[in-house]
Amino acid sequence: MRILIVEDEEILASRIARVLTQERYQVDTAFDGAKGARLALSRPYDLIILDILLPKRNGIEVLRELRFEGVKVPILLLTAKDEIEDKVKGLDSGADDYLTKPFAISELLARIRSLLRRRSDAKSASLEVGDLVVNTDKCEVFQHGKDIHLTPKEYAILEFLLYNKNRVVSRLSIAEHVWGDTMDMSMTNFVEVHVKNLRKKIDGDGQRNVVQTVRGLGYIIKDAP
Amino acid sequence: MTIQWRLSLWYMCVTLAILVIFSMATYLGMRHLLYSALDKERDLISQAIESSYDPYQNVFKEMQIDPFRLSRNLKQTYIVVYDSFERPIFHSPLAEQIEMPIPLTRQVIEERHTIRMTDGAGGQTSIKYHSTTYRTFSRKIVYRNKTIGWVNMAFPTTEIESSMHNLLKSLMLGILLAVGLIGSGSYFLTRKALRPVAIITNKAREISSRNLSERLDVYNEHDELGGLTVVLNDLLQRLENSFLAQRRFMADAAHELKTPLAVLRAHWEDEINNDGISQEVREKLVQDTEIISRLAHLINNMLLLAQTEETKFERKRLQLDAVVKDVIYDVQVLADMKSQQLHLHVTPTSEVTGDRDRLYQLVFNLVENAIKYTPEKGTIWVHLERRENQTRLSIEDDGPGIAEEHLPCLFERFYRVKKDRSRKTGGSGLGLAICKLIVEAHHGTIEVTSQPNAGTRFQVRLPLATDVA
Fold first, then answer.
1. Which CATH number is correct for B313-463, 3.30.565.10, 3.40.50.850, 3.30.70.890, 3.90.1640.10?
2. What interface predicted TM-score (ipTM) does this complex get?
3. Closest CA in chain B for residue A53
4. Which letter does DSSP use for residue A224 in this model?
């Protein structure tokens, strides 16, 4: 999987690039709009991460040109302004998703996986860990072929942790992901309760420990050994 | 007093003064005219008497005294003629009935070719007799330096005085009428003249920070009020410019702050998954990311408060009871942690028009506040009901309450009731300011009532969704 990052803040761009490389993506970076557009048009990417405020050419312009030229790659917009018009303008111009700065790395990874998955066939739209199968299309969870009923928030937490498999995800990042714009700092408390309820449903009387607590940090779902 | 009243009053005063001067002149002139006519009559009568004098016999030829034809109303005129021995020799009909004590004059003021005449002492005097006022004259008749007799006359002035009285009455009535008419006329005229000012005032009052881009209508820019309107519009333009500049500054500043925060956050979150660092450092990094998130949250809230545009809010029909239930479901955890009772009473179907996320934020802030400031094992009641065309949401607790002096400032930005508990209980002090902003953006009202040691109650009223909208 090859990803292009177009972001003028070089430290941020290289940080994202590092994380994505760790996650075994191939990454190119561009620090301005003109170079970003040139790269995007000349090489086949699977995903483009595009900042809106860029030197030389802004993100919306680049986005429109790419769509005009028939580039159908999923594009994730990064924006520091959380104004509705900006989001609407971005999505109208052909972006697939947007993320408001400052975002959590885990949120970025989840969005990237979700976008890449959405593009591929529906058959592969499932995540697996141990005997647990999660269908991200229908938001269904199966264990040994048996349907497990989760509340929307429990499901959102499970999916988020699976998208970030083998990475520690903080309670704060989970709260931000689940509650989005309505997130309040005190909501980190809610995460514990929902995770507790989630465990009751998927751990099967303590036989398994799918969602592990990392003390002082958050939670992690690891590949079964 | 309004300008309109002041102007009308001034008009009235000025017209009153002019009319009084005019009426006084008329009155005095008229009086002078009437009395001159009387004096003329007196002269004619005395001339007739003089010409009846026969110097050879030294007598007045009695029957030649025929003043009756000279005067219009001689029957009411008092005439007595005396001879040189001061004996009365002629009485007019009136003088035969009454006698008036008119002293004979000793003074000669006028000399004709045959007769000199004088007026009574001090000229004319008046005598009141049987409730009738008479104007009296006494004339000495002198022939060749020899006094030959006197004529005493008295004219009733009742007629003149009553005419003068009538004139005065009608003048006063006229003045009153004129002043009344001019007063009301000027009231309507000034009102007409000042109407554009009232229009401008009302319009300018409607313009607030929410609709600064509106302008006053200019009807005629060449008249005085048109000039004023142009100046006001100019002022509004400058106000709007600085307002927009401030908002742009806020947005730019927030953007500039957010990008470095994003860098920091990416940095630390990446390090958290680095196996090479100790558990201790990792925990610190997680705490730091929380601080970054708190900062980002604060910036977002400030941005929300700085941009009071309604465009930031979505306007969709939604069930408020679903939002409230959602919040209660979420915050139940917080209440459980403090062993608090959380009661919810919802009457179904309260449909409002608005932004779901913002309304969630509103209800969440209010309920979370109640939980935060109510001690353990306390009780919180959340009521949602429909009254006429309103939805009423009330959040009530039996906590320590808020002292009365804090209540008016509660919705101010960064206001804290107790300075010491600021960090421990968390929050930025913007929560209630944001609640107020959200409520107002949905055309509702929010109010708080509280009794120390008894509890606090927040009440939000929102208009129900209308089919027109």
1. 3.30.565.10
2. 0.72
3. B255
4. -
